[in-house]
Amino acid sequence: MRYLIVGLIAVGSLPAPSELMARDGLRITTFSADITPPLGQPVGLGFIPILKTAEHPLMARGVLLQDSGTSCVICTFDWMEVHNESYDFLRQKIADAAGVHVSHVALHCLHQHTAPAISTAAQRLQLNETDPRRVASAEYLLDVSKKVAAAIHAGQTNWRQVTHIGTGKASVERVASSRRIERTDGSIQGRGSNTKSSPQLRELEEGLIDPWLRTVSLDNADGPVVQMHYYASHPQSFYGDGRASYDVPGMIRSRLEQTSGVFQLYITGCGGDVAFGKYNDGSREARSELAARLQDGIERSIASLERHPVGTMEWSIEHVRLPLRTDGEFSQAGSRRILSDPESGESQRRKAAIALAWIERCDSGHPVELSCLSISHVQMLHLPGEPFVQYQLAAQQMRHDRFVCVAGYGDCGMGYIGGDRIFKDRGGYEQTYAFAGPCETVFMAALQNLLSRAGSARQGARETDSDVQNIDRHD
Ligand SMILES: [Zn+2]
To answer: What does the pLDDT read at residue 24?
Structure first.
C-alpha cells in the first residue's frame, strides 16, 4: 500500500501484479538496448557535431529489482545528458514497461560527450516546429523509449534471485582530477577533460576528487548476477569529431562483461568539477591508459568485495526547490532577450533556451527529485544535474556507518550544481552553465534528510517536500 503515500503522483501506474508475486526475497532482471542515434541526423541539442560514425554503440542498460515490499529500476544511458520533460517522458516509459511507479525509476546519463544531449523543451523554445534538429531529436527520443521498453519487457522473462550483497572499493590512480584549481591569488584556473592544447595544466595539482571507486555486487549461490561501479569524473577522453562512442566507461564495461560473464553497470557519480584533464592529452594512447587504470581500480574493487546476506529494499524520495538565478543572461528576461535577438549566435541561443526551459519548469511547480535506494547497509543515492564532488564526499561523511554510492546526472535541466562559492569565483567554467542559483544549503539538507531516513526503518517509500526557497540574488 505504500504507493498511496507517494502523494504527488497519480495512482494510474501502480505496480504490476508481478510485483505482488515477489514474495521470496530480492530478485533482479537486467536489460540492455542499443540506442545509437541514426548517423548523419541532427539529433540532440547540438553541443557536438552531427554523428557520422559509431566507434562504439551507445547503450541503455539497467536493472529491475523487486522484493515483497517494493520494486525499482536503475537505468543508465550512454548520453551526454537529458533534461526536464524529456527526462520525465523516458522515466515514465521505463516505469510503464517495468511495472513500477515512476518515482521508483532512477535514470542517469554517464555524460559522455561523444553522445547526444536531449531536451525537448529547450528545442521547442529555440527552434521552429519543422526545424530538422527538432524533428530528428523528437523522433529519436520516441525511438529510444520504444527500444528501452522492449528491452525491459524482454528482461522480465529472466528473473534471478539475489541472496547476497557485496560491497568493495579501491582507490583509482591517475584518472580523475579537478576542473577548478585555485590559484595563489584566489582565482580559479579551469582545466577540462583534455589538456592537449595546454599541457602546462597537467603540472597543476590533482585537486579535490573522490579517488575511491565503489562496487555493489548483487549475488546468488551461482556467484555475482550484477555488478555496479560508481566513480566520480567526467568520463570523456576526446570528442567533437562526429564519432559516437561509449568512451572509457563503456570500453571497461564491455571488457569486464566479456571476461566475467557478469552484467556490469557503470555509473558516473558527482563529477561536475572532476575530469581526466591532468592525465589526458586527448590521444588514443591516453584513452587506452586511462581505461586501463580505471579498469584496474574496478578489478581491485571487485577483488575487495565483502558479501553479506541481502536484506530488505527501501526507496526514499526527497523533493527540493532550487532557487532561480536572476542575474543577466540567466534571468527569464535575459534569456528571452537572447532568443528574440537575431544577432544571437547558435550557442548563445541554445544556452538561453536551456535556461528558459529550466525556469519554466520551476515556475510550473515541478520540484527537483532526489532518491535513495537502500539495500541492507548499502545506500545508493540518485542525484540530478552535474553535482560537484563535494556533495558525494559530504554524503559519505553523513553516513560513514553505511556504504554510500552516488549517481549524478539524473535530470540535468539545471546544469551544474556547485558550491555557492562558484557564483563569486573569478575564473572557472561551471558557473556559466549553472541554471540554479546558490543552493548548497538546500542540497546538503536534502542529502541529510534522505540519508538519515533511508534504511532507518522498514517503512517503505516516503516522500517529503523541502519547500525551502532561496532566491538570493548573486553577483
Ligand atoms: Zn559536464
So the answer is: 72
